[in-house]
Write a structure and sequence with these properties.
The complex is a heterodimer of chains A (588) and B (117). By secondary structure, chain A is an alpha/beta fold. Chain A is built from 19 helices and 20 strands. Classes of the chains: A alpha/beta (588), B mainly alpha (117).
Amino acid sequence: MATVTINGTSVKVKNGTSILRAAESVGINIPILCFLEEVNEVGFCRLCVVEVEGEQDLISSCNTPVKNKMRIYTDTKRVLESRKTSLQLLASKHRFDCWRCPKDGHCEFYDMLKQYDIEFDEFGPSTGRYEDIITGLGITQDQSKCILCKRCVSVCAVEVTTRVLKFRDDDGLNPVVSPTVGLTFDQAGCINCGQCVAVCPTGTLFDTDHIVKVEEMLDDKKRFVIAQTTPEVKSALIEEFGLNKELTCKKIDEMLNDALQQLGFDHTLDVTFANDLTVLEIATELEDRILKGIESPLFSSVCPSSVSYIENYQPDHLTNISQVKGPHIAQGAILKSYYNDKYLEEDKLKINVVSLVSCPARKAEIAREDLEVDGVRDVDAVLTIREFARMLRKKEIDFKSLAGIKNESYFEPSSGASVLFGVSGGLTTAIIRTLYNILEKKELSELDFKDVLIKSHSKKGSIREFKIRMMNMDIRFAVVDGGASMKEIFRILETGKKKYHFIELMACASGCINGGAMPINFNDKLNDAIVDRANLLYLEDTLYRPNRKAHLNKSVANIYKDFFTQPSSKQAHKYLYRDFSVKDIRNE
Amino acid sequence: MNANEPVVNDLFTKWILDSETKINESELINKLLNYIDLQKPEICGKCTPCRDGVIRMETLLKMYLDKKADLSTLKELVQLTANLRASRCSVGLDIGKNFEVVLENNYNTLYNPVRKY
């Protein structure tokens, strides 16, 4: 233990504790802009500097461990002046267009400038360090706003492990953060998980805009525009609009319908129907592999980032990815065919499907060539929660005060399993419940499985294993979330020491509830927020859905009776299945 | 670099050891600009005070040469010099320390052209 004095207050902390954490333990907050615990402790921004007695220079508190008897001052004139000057320097290389910035009120840099009352008389507001805009199907980078904090680079390397974004400092005075120079994010091997967007303290990295596209669809009265939403979006809306945490998914769903209709959408529904359908198809795919004795595991394809990860970085496993489309894509195909023919009776070429989701990877996903049926695209646009919030503000719709309108969907209520898709382990839980029925021809009574669903959030993700006895054999599952864990599971598979029948891959730690386009939560608040988001979905499964198994969804049974005949049929393959290919990337 | 220019260390040793040595304004500014030029390749570009601060200091010194400097120019120069003490490595820290010596021993040389009264 070390005893240190911070601004006159004595505190005992463990050896090795950083000055920043020691100060926090006595309620003293030190500003940070580049720091991310265990991910980016590089001390680039120099805003967390403090004075230490006996030291000539100012010391960064985020990466300096305390020493016994250290006397630390965090608020001297010298420290405050230094912070102000550093902020002025950063501001002088940042382009300010805050009123139309995609960060939209969640800018750490703006908050800091405001907190320190930064003036521009001396330095002058700038046009930005660089003018380039690096495009991508899911993520875009506006380099005129980059403050070179290196958070995105570290997250891409440590958490996601793809190392697409790099800090290029060949010329020390003009460093730049970018994917492979001259290429788009997708060409450079980006999996579009959006974790870099979530940690960016400015509006440098953002979800590629689809608002313009959606507004055009809504303005064209000849078009019939359908909005479909994923379950995790509801948990995000609580945070985004400061709603009461006690609200149920059903109530939020009604408010969401209200808002979407006011925006001009002609029809709204949930993707949970397709979640149930997907479970049945994947379980059938898995049954087929188990019966054939195929040893290699089946990888889930629900998370588009994990699919890109395999295509870009693990091409040897390409043949083992489940060929079933992601739920929002599958539902898009159904909406434009079966659903339209049976209920809507619109001209299917005039139907546009817009998904409201929690990650930018789905923006990239809808552009894939294989996701269309007879030349009709399955999904036409993808809005993230932040884009949705911006559209509401533009139309002066106050989400919090909406009364709500009952869901219009013609589908029967979906299962409890279907709402779990947004949480890591949710897909596996849903598949186990249905696979048991398929293989054993009877219903499983225990529906909650130990350690399959997440209980707490870990930045680096986790690998969790579960086995269950079916057909007199152990069926082994692995749930993998987070880029670092995905890399680890492929390493484990290479050693051949472990065998699984099914592996659920989620590129973001804890799953879609921590997606790159979920509401921004700074630092320590994120863990609690993610647990709250997960609990909302768990409650929906355990308390509010009478049916908790995907195969018992009545609308799913109807669509097989009317349209697909049976899972994995020729018709099902036409609408619900897809292909994969090795992508030509250059990650340098 | 001009072959007749003294090497950096000689220049600063002279200033540090002999605070009585006075240099005229343009000679001082040129020497400082030359010093910054020599230090530029050493700057790694990682921390704010050094990466952006030194470039700004260069701009401010050029304002002296262009006769565009005023009191706020000098104030900003002092501010940026002090902020270099927050640098991440010895490159920025050394530039800061050397500028502190210059400001201490030759403040009047920089103050006279911008004084108002």
